[in-house]
């Protein structure tokens, strides 16, 4: 039988984690708090125009709201990302470190310009902005369809994460991994969790629309910070400090756990059904490189451009109250991210030292370590609930904001633009509610047999949207010569490049490359680079070439959006 | 012929975007080569810890990350200019005829 590092330690912590009623009680309070905020948002929205209030919060976001809600934290942040750290070790810091500049790039590049253009054109949604800037309904429709496509992927993955947190908080329900090869039935607790999660998040988003999504985001972001900081102290204390945790984790695995390109954990690969001692897709003579140089380089682009090209992020910037709000958001978010991502890495390294037997279900690490470190504390059950509220909050925040964007795409960008431009407020309101309920119903349907690729889907959704929208958004904001056809070409080229590379990877074209995350939902890494880089390059080439080859845009229209209202005084002779 | 001046928001946004691009490139140019040369192909025998972090993580990621936070504070507090974003175009009064309302 092949010796697998870490197997010797199996059974070291065989006691099943138990969840007390206090944990469930804290999560229920958290849910009630979110619904109450949704009701407040509903009251605040009633005095404004329905579409502007429901889809854009009447452009009233302050600095804290913008900073804490335009983030890309999701279920992946607290489940997928920790599982990668637990599995591959310190090298995953290279995977996430692009976040050091994300607040700057996310707000500092496009923020001010998008906020200005959206006011000049009266745009409420991102497709509104594309349409108005080029006076092109076709461009608005194309961008709207792409946004709904990528966000639907992300939404389906988030519903699973939300249901699982509820399931974990249910006393006696046991744990369930999100990992791809996890087996076993989901059980009634999962479906109850799915139902509670769906009713809560759809309920408060229906009540308050964009404002409810934003206000609950703030509440949930604060809970995330409290949860992470609490868990950091508890985990470090239990593991004997960071250095000791790293040494123990390396002893449980190998030296690769501390260095690049990362540890290749055999137990991440599925077991061979014919010989349970063997792991399929694991080759000790040729270990998987989680972060080869090409991917280290790529991931400095991935999170930066995923933030820059995120439609949910763009719409929040459009909702910012002023430039003062945008610039304050930069430093608020910078500090916030520092206290989320670096601590999460440290917590998971401690997790590998404290709970070495999770190698085949690493997605459990955050809830498991929360339960382990609080079990002997007075009120530990309540504390565990407080910590579990962090991933639950991240998931709810993502789903609520995406529900608003998808509903606005269907109602504002498709129905109101193409089906019934004369639709009244009452009709738009009713259709928005129906759209949200329908989208949520589809996501629930897709989660009856949930998808297995949470983190991979998060990366696909983010990089796909970035490849499609980054270059067009930059062209829209800064390039006078950009044309409608150039924009459509840029979007299509970026999207098609990423989709083709994912289709190649999923179909197994060229064999397993043995780099990056082990997942069935993987792209083909051309020259070891993330598809995003190829998508951005294709989008740039197509967008610029087609713009230059087509008729220049109407100069009068461009001048209104690019020039000062008064011409310069003539230079003295 | 009088040359129209660029929109002041566009002018400052362009200047700030170029500055951000420079900061991003600087962070990338330091972090990726440093971590690749100091964090790959090593053994536990020569591993040192700085404030509990493996040395290459501390100097290659923690220090530049904290530096970027400091730069972000400087950028947001002093470098980025406040501008008037203009009046909101009434939803039903699309004076530009751009379809935004």
Annotation keywords:
heterodimer; A: 573 residues; mainly alpha; Sodium/glucose cotransporter; 21 helices; disordered N terminus; B: 101 residues; 56% helix; 7% strand; disordered C terminus
SSE inventory with pairings:
The complex is a heterodimer of chains A (573) and B (101).
Chain A: H1 21-45, H2 50-56, H3 63-69, H4 75-88, H5 92-96, H6 102-108, H7 111-121, H8 126-134, H9 137-168, H10 187-239, H11 242-252, H12 293-308, H13 311-318, H14 323-354, H15 365-374, H16 380-419, H17 425-446, H18 454-478, H19 484-506, H20 531-549, H21 555-562, E1 563-567
Helix pairs in contact in A: 1-10, 1-16, 2-10, 3-10, 3-14, 4-14, 4-16, 4-18, 6-12, 6-14, 8-9, 9-10, 9-16, 9-17, 9-18, 10-14, 10-15, 10-16, 10-17, 11-14, 12-18, 15-16, 16-17, 18-19, 18-20, 19-20
Chain B: E1 4-6, H1 8-39, E2 49-50, E3 53-54, H2 55-79
Antiparallel strand pairs in B: 2-3
Helix pairs in contact in B: 1-2
Based on CA inertia axes, which overall geometry of chain A fits?
globular
Profile the largest sheet of chain A.
none
Straight-line N-to-C gap of chain A:
91 Å
Percentage of β-strand residues of chain B = 5-15%
Shape of chain B: elongated
Strand coverage percent of chain A: under 5%
As for the number of domains of chain A, it is 1
Instruction: Enumerate the spans of chain B where pLDDT stays under 50 for 5 or more consecutive residues.
Output: 92-101
- Rg of chain A, nearest Å: 24 Å
Q: Over the alpha carbons, how many angstroms does the gyration radius of chain B reach?
A: 23 Å
Which fold name is given in CATH as the topology of chain A? Sodium/glucose cotransporter
Q: In what order do the strands lie side by side in the largest sheet of chain B?
A: 2-3
* H/E series of chain A: HHHHHHHHHHHHHHHHHHHHHE
Helix/strand/pairing category of chain A:
mainly alpha
Fraction of residues in helix of chain A:
55-70%
Q: What is the N-to-C order of secondary-structure elements of chain B (H for helix, E for strand)?
A: EHEEH
Mean pLDDT of chain A: 82
């Amino acid at each position: 039988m092949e010796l697998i590092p870490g197997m010797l330690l199996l059974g070291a912590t065989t006691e099943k984690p138990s969840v007390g009623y206090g944990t469930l009680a804290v999560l229920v309070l958290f849910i009630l708090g979110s619904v109450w905020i949704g009701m407040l948002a509903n009251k605040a929205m009633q005095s404004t125009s329905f579409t502007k209030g429901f889809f854009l919060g009447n452009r009233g976001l302050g600095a804290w709201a913008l900073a804490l809600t335009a983030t890309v934290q999701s279920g992946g942040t607290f489940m997928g990302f920790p599982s990668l750290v637990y599995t591959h070790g310190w090298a995953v810091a290279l995977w996430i470190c692009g976040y050091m500049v994300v607040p700057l790039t996310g707000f500092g590049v496009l923020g001010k310009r998008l906020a200005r253009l959206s006011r000049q054109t009266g745009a409420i949604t991102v497709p509104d902005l594309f349409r108005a800037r080029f006076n092109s309904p076709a461009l608005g429709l194309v961008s709207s369809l792409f946004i709904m496509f990528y966000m639907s992927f992300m939404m389906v993955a988030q519903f699973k994460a939300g249901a699982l947190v509820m399931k974990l908080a249910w006393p006696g329900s046991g744990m369930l991994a999100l990992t791809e090869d996890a087996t076993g039935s989901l059980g009634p607790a999962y479906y109850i969790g799915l139902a509670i999660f769906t009713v809560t998040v759809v309920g408060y988003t229906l009540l308050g629309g964009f404002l409810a999504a934003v206000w609950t985001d703030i509440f949930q972001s604060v809970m995330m910070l409290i949860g992470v900081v609490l868990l950091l102290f508890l985990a470090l204390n239990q593991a004997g400090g960071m250095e000791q945790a790293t040494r123990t984790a390396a002893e449980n695995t190998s030296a690769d756990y501390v260095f690049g390109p990362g540890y290749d954990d055999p137990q991440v690969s599925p077991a061979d059904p014919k010989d349970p001692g063997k792991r399929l897709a694991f080759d000790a003579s040729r270990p998987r490189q989680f972060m080869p140089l090409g991917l280290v380089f790529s991931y400095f682009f991935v999170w930066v451009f995923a933030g820059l090209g995120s439609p949910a992020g763009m719409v929040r910037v459009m909702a910012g109250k002023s430039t003062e709000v945008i610039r304050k958001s930069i430093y608020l978010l910078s500090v916030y991210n520092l206290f989320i991502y670096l601590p999460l890495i440290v917590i998971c390294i401690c997790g590998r030292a404290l709970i070495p037997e999770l190698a085949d279900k690493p997605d459990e690490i955050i809830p498991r370590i929360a339960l382990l470190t609080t079990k002997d504390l007075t009120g530990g059950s309540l504390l565990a609930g407080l910590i579990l509220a962090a991933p639950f909050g991240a998931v709810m925040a993502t789903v609520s904001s995406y529900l608003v964007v998808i509903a606005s795409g269907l109602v504002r960008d498709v129905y109101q633009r193409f089906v019934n431009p004369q639709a009244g407020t009452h009709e738009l309101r009713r259709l928005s509610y129906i759209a949200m309920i329908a989208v949520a119903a589809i996501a629930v349907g897709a989660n009856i047999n949930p998808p297995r690729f949470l983190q991979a889907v998060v990366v696909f959704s983010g990089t796909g949207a970035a490849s499609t929208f980054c270059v067009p958004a930059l062209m829209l904001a800064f390039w006078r010569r950009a044309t409608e056809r150039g924009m459509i070409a840029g979007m299509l080229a970026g999207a098609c490049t990423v989709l083709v590379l994912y289709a190649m990877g999923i179909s197994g074209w060229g064999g397993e490359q043995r780099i990056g995350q082990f997942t069935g939902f993987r792209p083909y890494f051309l020259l070891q680079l993330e598809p995003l880089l190829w998508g951005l390059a294709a989008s740039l080439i197509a967008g610029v070439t087609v713009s230059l080859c087509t008729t220049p845009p109407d100069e009068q229209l461009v001048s209104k959006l690019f020039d000062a209202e008064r011409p310069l005084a003539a230079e003295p002779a | 012929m009088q040359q129209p001046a660029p929109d002041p928001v566009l002018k400052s946004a362009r200047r700030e975007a170029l500055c951000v691009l420079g900061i991003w490139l600087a962070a990338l140019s330091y972090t990726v080569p440093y971590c690749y040369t100091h964090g790959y192909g090593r053994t536990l025998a020569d591993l040192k810890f700085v404030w509990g972090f493996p040395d290459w993580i501390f100097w290659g990621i923690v220090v530049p990350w904290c530096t970027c936070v400091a730069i972000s504070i400087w950028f947001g507090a002093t470098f980025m200019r406040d501008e008037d974003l203009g009046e909101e175009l009434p939803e039903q009064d699309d004076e530009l005829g751009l379809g935004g309302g």
